[in-house]
Specification:
By secondary structure, the protein is α/β, with parallel strands linked by helices. It has ten helices and 20 strands. The relative contact order is 0.21.
Length: 416
């Protein structure tokens, strides 16, 4: 049986790995010249079940409204006439109750914890490297009020399988001495020892190479899918810039582009592209740069140590499919990095990047069969695609094989 995976980001590559493991002859279509070159390229580098709390919540609703008139927030909305944004926003608002936030958070956590186990098993089998650290991640706060609020959120995760430790500022700096210059500005932290960090793009590219060498997976780079063609209740072929490609099974994993491709065959996906920004900074003083990952919860800035590089990421900007960026877009990110780690990086030599996260209103990805008997979705992972990639890939591959997934599928499957 031949499976065609549409999209060579980390989600698509992980899907290909597990499909090949299930005995499929797999081809991956990717429009860039390398795997993991778009949303997988410049993300925060965090593999974090601890970041499972759903975006849609009463607090997020207040922040979303403020973002319409304030430019100093981590969420930014361009008030432009985009009907897709307003339709998505209406669905987002319905998810912003406390009851819905709890449901969506626990669905994400279930998949995130499973994905962590799948990643561990994959690495043990393949031996691939990606500047991984497995020493946990810090979520730190600048006031006692925000710390108390964060602990309240994390208690829900802790009650359902996530290990956490609440730290005062002294304990925080003992775990991460690089934060000493900013110690007096921090109130405390939540430490999630189950979380990890690693270079998502490096993982995706190394796994793609492993799949080519060891599992017979074919990667067709520089190939863009323009449409899907159907016959009856099946997808028959993908139309590309290099001609049609037929297969028995199709897995859609094209990230933020997925709704535009799916709508051509009548599959509606509630996904909106949300732009994130990141910087990759050469480390200058090794002992002054962080050794583990972290999130400044008040500034909404995340960071991770990737070998001899420091990755910094921030912002959720609702601006359609625009990926352009200017130096001033990174000013707040640079300022916070210099405040936290003044001698940790060569900030003048930072590589800047912006990319699109495929966000669903609920923050829960959309997986499984959709409309047609041989079309499967692996889409809508938002800002945690790196965290969820292995679990999602194995989950979808099991469904393709008509095998019962290893976790409860409730709330994860496509629903028209």
């Amino acid at each position: 049986m031949k499976a065609l995976v549409l999209g060579g980001g980390v989600i698509g590559v992980a899907s290909a790995y597990y499909l090949a493991e299930n005995g499929y002859r797999v081809t991956v279509i990717e429009r860039r010249d390398k795997a993991a070159s778009e949303a997988s390229y410049g993300n925060a580098g965090l593999i974090t079940p601890g970041d499972s709390y759903a975006w849609a919540s009463p607090e997020a609703l207040k922040l979303f409204i403020k973002s319409l008139y304030r430019r100093d927030l981590g969420i930014k909305v361009r008030a432009h006439a985009d009907p897709r944004l307003w339709l998505w926003s209406a669905k987002f608002l319905k998810e912003c109750t406390r009851a819905r936030a709890r449901i969506n958070t626990l669905r994400k956590l279930r998949l995130a914890l499973y994905s962590r186990d799948c990643l561990d098993a994959l690495v043990a089998r393949t031996g691939i490297r990606f500047d991984r650290t497995s020493r946990g991640v810090l979520y730190f706060f600048r006031s006692q009020e925000s710390l108390d609020h964060g602990v309240g959120h994390m208690r829900l995760l802790a009650d359902h399988g996530l290990r956490i430790e609440v730290l005062d500022r002294d304990a925080l700096v003992r775990i991460e001495p690089a934060l000493e210059p900013a110690k007096d500005k921090l109130s405390g932290a939540i430490f999630s020892p189950m979380d990890q960090t690693g270079d998502c793009s490096q993982f995706g590219r190394n796994l793609a190479e492993w799949c080519e060498r060891n599992a017979g997976v074919a990667f067709r780079y520089g190939t863009s899918v323009t449409a899907l063609e159907v016959e009856g209740n099946s997808v028959r072929r993908a139309m590309t810039n290099e001609g049609p490609i037929e297969a028995d099974t199709f897995v859609l994993a094209t990230g933020a582009e997925s709704p535009r491709l799916a709508q051509g065959i009548g599959v509606k996906l509630p996904i909106y592209p949300v732009k994130g920004y990141s910087l990759t900074v050469p480390i200058r003083e090794r002992n002054r740069a962080p050794s583990i990952g972290g999130v400044d919860e008040d500034k909404l800035i995340a960071f991770s140590r990737l070998g001899d590089r420091l990755r910094l990421a921030a912002t959720a900007e609702f601006a359609g499919y625009d990926t352009h960026h200017r130096p001033r877009d990174f000013a707040a990110l640079i300022a916070t990095a210099r405040e936290l780690f003044p001698e940790g990086g060569d900030y003048a030599a930072a590589e800047s990047w912006a990319g699109l996260r495929p966000m669903t209103p609920s923050s829960v990805p959309i997986l499984g069969r959709a409309v047609y008997r041989n079309l499967f979705l692996n889409v809508g992972h938002g800002h945690v695609g790196w965290t969820l990639c292995c679990g999602s890939g194995k989950f979808v591959a099991d469904l393709v094989k008509e095998r019962q997934p290893e976790i409860d599928p409730e709330g994860l499957l496509y629903s028209p």
